[in-house]
Amino acid sequence: MAVLTLSPQSRPIWPPRLCQRGGSGNLLLTRPLKTRKFGSLEIFEEAKVLELNAQVRDVDTNTLQLSKGLLDKILSKTVIVVPCKDEDLAIIRGVISAVPASCLVLLVSNSKRGHDGQYKQELEIAKAFSSNGKRVLYIHQKDARAASAFQASGLPEVLNHAGGSIRNGKGEGMLLGIAVAAAFCPDQHYIGFVDADNLNPGSVTEYCAAFAAGFAMSAMSASPEAEHSMVRLKWASKPKERSNGRFEFVTEGRCSRIVNSWLNKLFAPGFTDTPFITTGNAGEHAMTMGLAVKLRMAAGYAIEPFHFVDMLARGHLVTPEGTQAHARLCPNTLPSLDKPVRVVQIRTLNPHYHRASDDEHIRRMWAAGLGSIYHGLAPYRSVAGSDECALLKLSRDMHDFAATHDGLDQSSGELPRPRVYPALENMDLQVFREVLGPSLGFGSVRSAGLETWSY
Ligand code: GDD
Ligand code: MG
Q1: How many angstroms separate the CA atoms of 351 and 326, rounded?
Q2: Cβ–Cβ under 8 Å, residues 4 and 263
Q3: Which among 87, 173, 399, 411 is placed 20 to 30 Å from 225, CA to CA?
């Protein structure tokens, strides 16, 4: 039984050639044909990167060809946020160096500060890039002015307590990154996220190109102003060193395997052979700034799976009062998303090498992801109706799975309930800019050449 009302489609969406003859450096991808639509949310089947640096040529109708010029144009409007917590300095340097020069980089660090911390060395790296012409901004998650800026501009939820500092967590770092980008970089239309522990810099270059490809694909069928877009990446494989010294190239991570399987039960229960959702935990993802400030974000590592929950709720289950049958489910406080949302999933050519995590970290991460789905959809499963009954069953099954795999919260006996932050659009960005400006300006805006920008 389908969990939600679907209008799955199979139609050609994009023209095969989006570039001029004679060029090179183009990106070739498979053309996604199947989409699943839930009200104003449309999710596309995974597109695969076929060639990274192709000569322009005739391609068949199942292949998309995107010009380097088009991708560069999009990247020049993109902020790449690099969340970082005490990663190896050489790796951080590699990541920043691999972000295309046309992007603006924003390092959001929660690394240790003080005389024995490495943050000051991260600053030196960022400044060195800036002095060589690369636009690199940086901010520390525990920056006192950043906390004051959130407090003063109307988002105190992100602080430990009134007057305290910004909470720890990757999600919180990303939230700070979005707020800084929205407040100080109004000319940037897109925001992407790339982990600082990417051991292979070449992957990062491809991730950024794939973000741009996803936006280009989205913009082909509707103007960028008419819709929100999100691009989520699935890497080709993750190399795991085994005890015999050999590498195994696994195609799905330990956490993704679990979270994707439940998202598929929710969004695409009929797709048993080829899973439709492959990017539930896409650490590397990007979106239009308009969407980034509208979505509610979950704390820590629940942030990526929760995107799907908020987009589903506010694109399908929550509708403006009285316009659809589902309006009765609308919790008063949640506005529906104002434009259609397209989610493009892209599988890269490069493998993803990163710092290895232990089993306990993985367990906490999938439990947080499932918890964000379980609790995020809770308001919609208590009303009679076929969708809601199916949601209830899904939730029960998810709970049972977590119970047998040590995923329940010890104290509540439930899946962990994520902290969910209000959308950033509720903040007063002008106030945020005024409070944070002096701190950001001294350390990094000037070194990134931002004082000449209009903000
Ligand atoms: N600013 C900031 N603040 N960054 C942080 C924090 C924090 O409190 N905690 C972690 N980070 C940074 C790390 O330094 C790293 O660059 C990135 O966030 C991801 O953290 P990892 O600890 O490496 O996460 P992971 O590899 O287990 O999981 C990644 O992949 C998952 C999908 O497999 C993350 O990107 C997950 O969000 C993703 O779901
Ligand atoms: Mg990692």
Answers
A1: 41
A2: no
A3: 173
Lining residues, ligand 1, CB within 6 Å = 83-85, 87, 108-110, 141, 168-170, 173, 195-197, 253, 255-256, 281, 283, 301, 304, 354-355, 357, 361, 365
pLDDT digits (tens, 9 = 90+) for 190-248: 999 999 999 999 999 999 999 999 999 987 766 767 899 999 999 999 998 888 989 89
What is the pTM assigned to this prediction?
0.92
C-alpha distances out from residue 245 to 181, 241, 253, 351, Å? 43, 6, 19, 18
Which ligand 1 atom is nearest residue 362's CA? 27
The band of 445, judged by pLDDT with boundaries at 50, 70 and 90, is very low
Q: Which atom of ligand 1 is nearest to the CA of 355?
A: 23
Q: What is the pLDDT of residue 200?
A: 96
Mean pLDDT computed over 349-356: 94
Name the residue among 369, 346, 373, 350 with its Cα closest to residue 44. Answer: 346
Give just the sign of the alpha carbon dihedral 170, 301, 296, 229. Answer: positive
Tell me, what amino acid is at 370? L
- H/E element, 266: helix 254-267
Residue 105 CA from chain centroid, whole number: 16
Neighbours of ion ligand 2 (CB under 5 A): 197, 354
